[in-house]
Amino acid sequence: MINRRRQMPRWSWQRLLSKSVDLFCGYGEQPARVVGFSLCLIFIFAIAFWVFGIEDGSHVIQFSLDASWQQNLLNLGNTLYFSVVTFTTLGYGDLVPIGFSRMLAAIEAFTGSFTLALFVVVFVKKMTR
Fold it and tell me: CA-CA distances (angstroms) from residue 87 to 7, 29, 108, 128?
């Protein structure tokens, strides 16, 4: 597939799509790439939630310069938990996105559902060979 990609125009959408499919799942041959992509996505969204904030009842969880490093680390852990729950579309409801984080949560849930489906497809393809 790499040779076919080199035959495409250098900055074309087809070449970009081909490279993206290769990076994310190795053309359906490398489920570990899908897992790695998922973990990176979860961590990136966790940092975004840490910056923009989520809510636990009446308490806002986010990065603060006034808080100690231990409190900020605990808040990062909570946003990482929220990101995993959102990515897998479990949605326990104990933590709630606020403000801009609502849009991020919707994007992560949408992306997560497709990424989990991609993992199943790639895993089955790998196991049937």
Answer: 36, 23, 6, 27
